[in-house]
């Protein structure tokens, strides 16, 4: 029974990473659809988020079933708590990706003319968000507390572009609208920048949960911001026998992420996965 439980823990962790990968890839599709006015791609991205939601719901049920039937203790319980927490936040990210896909469809359907400068800023902000997601994936796969510390800078970069977007928008002459409905459509479209900003922040929250998994300490963003790598590393506690934290194995479940967005450590693992598959 113990071996079965350990196997189920590892499977749950792998599913969490696989869902995170799906969110990243679907976000790429949704943003591309928005920037290029590809309504079909937006529709496909929206459908993918519904599948992601279903996977998240199933993963949550699996974790609660393991808690109810196996009475996990110590590190096993921390892992399940971490997966449930990240799963909840992945559902939040999926919702934001879906909203971006809907905005892309609305932009095309209602022929909303978006200033080129604003579209370019959406692309820049998205590129920064991709790096946040990649850094989060790298931290989760490599159990890298140092990467967690650097994420606040990545998130700040996203927020900086988000603020620039709305400063630019306020200086830009907006389209003439025929009625309140068209104005509402336009407002929903400009919220894409806000959705991107929230996705980055939520992803960062997922990475911060790694501190709890590896140290047992429930630290928030402010605590992490004041810590240093040496302090965090000194707080690591051994994993239980039921937990297998194996970066080489875990990397297979995020192997479709862009190598230039995930950081050197994870990129090397993904490259090795690709070589082994050949």
Fill in the keyword field for this structure.
single chain; 278 residues; mainly alpha; 11 helices
Multimer state = single chain
Give the overall silhouette.
Answer: globular
Output the helix-strand order. Answer: HHHHHHHHHHH
Low-pLDDT stretches? none
SSE-based structural type: mainly alpha
Rg over CA atoms: 20 Å
What proportion of the residues form beta strands (DSSP E)? under 5%
Write down the overall mean pLDDT: 88
Report on this model:
This protein is mostly helical. Helices cover 80% and strands 0% of the residues. The protein is built from eleven helices and no strands. It has helices spanning 2-36, 39-70, 74-109, 116-142, 145-171, 180-190, 192-215, 221-226, 229-234, 247-250, 264-277. Helix 3 crosses helix 6 (180-190) and helix 4 packs parallel to helix 7. The chain is globular and about 60 Å long. 41% of the residues are buried. The model has no long low-confidence stretch (mean pLDDT 88).
Topology:
Blueprint: H1 2-36, H2 39-70, H3 74-109, H4 116-142, H5 145-171, H6 180-190, H7 192-215, H8 221-226, H9 229-234, H10 247-250, H11 264-277
Helix pairs in contact: 1-2, 1-3, 1-4, 2-3, 3-6, 3-7, 4-5, 4-7, 5-7
Summary of the model, kept short:
With 278 residues, the chain is mainly α. The chain contains 11 helices and no strands.
